[in-house]
């Protein structure tokens, strides 16, 4: 059985990986969207860049919320409360 220190370490490592993934996603957004904007400016009068910028931006906000435990819908600590509730419910 896993002790509390191992559990905390594993959760912290998962959190760090998620934050790292968020920053990679943010870096890609910061590089790709301006390139697409330039391509849009050079090739078309229709501003189609807004669609990938907004779509990816929404995904980026979701990734940020996941990486930093910011969930306005379920509140802080919801996951831990739900796990505790389910564990207590499952006891014999």
From TrEMBL:
InterPro entries: 2TM_dom. The keyword Transmembrane applies. Residues 10-88 form the 2TM domain. The chain crosses the membrane at residues 21-39, 45-66. Keywords: Membrane, Transmembrane, Transmembrane helix. This is 2TM domain-containing protein. The lineage of its organism: Bacteria, Pseudomonadati, Bacteroidota, Flavobacteriia, Flavobacteriales.
